[in-house]
DNA sequence: TCTTGAACTGAACGGGTGTTCAGATAGGGT
DNA sequence: ACCCTATCTGAACACCCGTTCAGTTCAAGA
């Protein structure tokens, strides 16, 4: 029965990862069995081991791939910020909008990326943490620069970075594409809240 | 060996719930076995069934108890807000500070409350969702009133409610009691960010 | 046409799962 | 001193787990 039309390694491999992503996001890593993943792909459990050495690696590959995509997508965004002036205010706005848009396009990957970290081996966990930190540092640099220029009123850039990312991540818990608000509208509202939450008060002295 | 000193139902029952809370928070509901919980208590697995009809109920009892405590603690906070003037600004500040303080005191319960919802039966899930909504409505009412009085600049009170709670919940992912910042300091920084993120711009017209 | 080997099956491995229950144990009431 | 019963044990139940592997199938290369 092997080697049916269109059932080569190039096709089954991605299907295995897609099935794992879907099921891990829906039920959690620990609650999903290799047999369930295999059934979703339409294959016996043993066949999965042609595409992953074990269940744990299947998870960490998904997470590393996702985090890699986040990092390179944000890198690709930087030139566009420069093109629009490149100040901390433009950077912060771009970050908020990028984060919302990018993450809403991959809700399952984002979901498991912060739900299933504890199911990684220490080595895999450390690697993921480093990537996450790199992403957060991108935001913190914007805050640091804005603070230095007196544009932002931020007492602790590290805490603020985490608080802003938490707020932005929250969109995943409720956003539905067919919902009341359009993606653009959601993006704008979040970008506005982010901007206001760190903006320095306009000094009355300047106006008076 | 039964009925050792101090090993009555009144004592073992709470110990079972405490062990389950600890292990569920650390490893996740699906990854923790009844035998592990029993071992933590110092008892055989069968004995757990004197204190819970099944594993699922053990989880939902923990979640419902926690959510009940959140709601009643917030109710108890309301008179104190009234005493301090009772406006939307005072209410919002009180909510942020209450949320941070209360949740940091129960990190494990909070953790499982938004990680393990999917492991509940639909009935138990619905009950929990209703309680969570009631809590969120407390915050939204503050925003609605502040918006009506022109104190807050909030285009969508529902979205803003969820965004603010997400931001406040984020504190759990990084706060360590022995860390760099004191609880009071963290509380103040978050309360400040919350306040600024919804505050209406001071109109230059008023000043000029 | 024959051979090769990638892709997959299906059964098996040892071990863990939630849950049940007959029986042992021992503190409190009489 | 005795019994009662709340409490707990330890074994068993049927089933599911991740992983391995000998064997089967069949498209492609020679």
TrEMBL record, chains A, B:
PANTHER family per the UniProt record, alphabetical: HTH-TYPE TRANSCRIPTIONAL REGULATOR BETI, HTH-TYPE TRANSCRIPTIONAL REGULATOR RUTR
Keywords: DNA-binding, Transcription, Transcription regulation
Species of provenance: Litoreibacter roseus
Gene Ontology MF terms: DNA-binding transcription factor activity; transcription cis-regulatory region binding
Pfam family, any one: TetR_C_24
Transmembrane segments annotated in the record for this chain: none
Gene3D superfamilies the record matches: Tetracycline Repressor, domain 2
Protein origin, superkingdom: Bacteria
Residues of the DNA-binding region: 33-52
Record flagged with keyword Oxidoreductase: no
Stretches assigned to the HTH tetR-type domain: 10-70
UniProt protein name: TetR family transcriptional regulator
């Amino acid at each position: 029965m092997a080697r049916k039309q269109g059932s080569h390694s190039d096709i089954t491999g991605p299907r295995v990862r897609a099935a794992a992503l879907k099921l891990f996001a829906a039920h959690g890593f620990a609650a999903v069995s290799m047999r369930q993943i295999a059934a979703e792909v339409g294959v016996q459990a043993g066949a999965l081991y042609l595409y992953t050495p074990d269940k744990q690696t299947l998870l960490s590959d998904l997470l590393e791939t996702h985090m890699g995509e986040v990092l390179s997508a944000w890198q690709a965004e930087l030139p566009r910020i420069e093109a629009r002036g490149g100040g901390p205010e433009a950077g912060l706005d771009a970050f908020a909008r990028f984060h919302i848009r990018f993450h809403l396009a991959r809700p399952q990957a984002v979901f498991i990326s912060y739900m299933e970290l504890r199911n990684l081996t220490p080595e895999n966990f450390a690697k993921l943490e480093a990537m996450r930190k790199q992403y957060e540092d991108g935001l913190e640099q914007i805050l640091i620069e804005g603070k230095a220029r007196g544009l932002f009123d931020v007492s602790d850039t590290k805490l603020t970075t985490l608080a802003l990312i938490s707020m932005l991540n929250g969109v995943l818990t409720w956003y539905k594409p067919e919902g009341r608000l359009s993606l653009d509208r959601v993006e704008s509202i979040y970008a506005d809240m982010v901007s206001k939450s760190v903006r320095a008060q306009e000094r009355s002295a300047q106006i008076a």
